[in-house]
Amino acid sequence: MRLVVFDMDGTLIDSVGLIVETVSAAFEAAGEVVPDERMIRSISGLTLNIALQKLAPAADADGLVRLGESYRAEYRARANGREPLFPGALETLDQLRNDPDTTLAVATGKGLSSARRLLAGHGIEHYFSSIQTPDDNPSKPAPQMIFNAMAAAGATARQTAMIGDTNHDMEMAQAAGVAAIGVAWGYHPPVELFAAGADLVLDRFDQLGVALTTLLE
């Protein structure tokens, strides 16, 4: 068997523009200095509280609470219908799902309810054997999300690949001892993904099948 674990934002879901806009609006509404786009891209995949600490290192505890509330409000106001799947994602997921030797899972920095709602909105929640989130795991790049996905699927590290667009995904894969496959269309550029431990970086979704055959048992 093989287990393929997908990140969501920047990997399956095209949320880059939405997240940059939402973070910028949230900081402005909270009276904080708005981070530049490079900084906002750098925190994709982290849990919200850790991301906000990195974006606003001078903020105290109350300030971080205000920023979190502001972010959630701005996201709710903007998100509806603005998180499409990347081109080729659905076709690739369909192919993998129809392979009897392949199990799919998700490891995301989103909360569980948000992740389920977004996947259900695209009609693919049932594709995944487990959805690993910070609700029950430490934030990326800690490897626990992958360990729990492996346990749920009955897979070993040598049978598992992590697919993601950020350094945090690649570092998590390295920490878990699984194959690390980056994608070039998300938040972090390929040079950073390779530096963080990516075995391969894909330019298109239709390259994933060959990558999995190359890297997994």
Report on the structure:
With 217 residues, the protein is α/β, with parallel strands linked by helices. It folds into two domains: 2-14 and 83-215, Rossmann fold, CATH 3.40.50; 16-78, Putative phosphatase, domain 2 (DNA polymerase, domain 1), CATH 1.10.150. Helices cover 46% and strands 12% of the residues. The chain is built from ten helices and six strands. The chain has helices spanning 16-29, 37-42, 48-55, 61-78, 89-97, 112-121, 144-153, 167-176, 190-195, 208-215, and strands at 2-6, 102-107, 130-132, 160-164, 179-183, 200-202. It has a six-stranded parallel sheet with strand order 3-2-1-4-5-6, sandwiched between helices. Helix 6 links the parallel strand 2 (102-107) and strand 3. Helix 1 (16-29) packs across helix 4. The longest helix is centred in the first third of the chain and has 18 residues, at 61-78. It is globular and about 50 Å long.
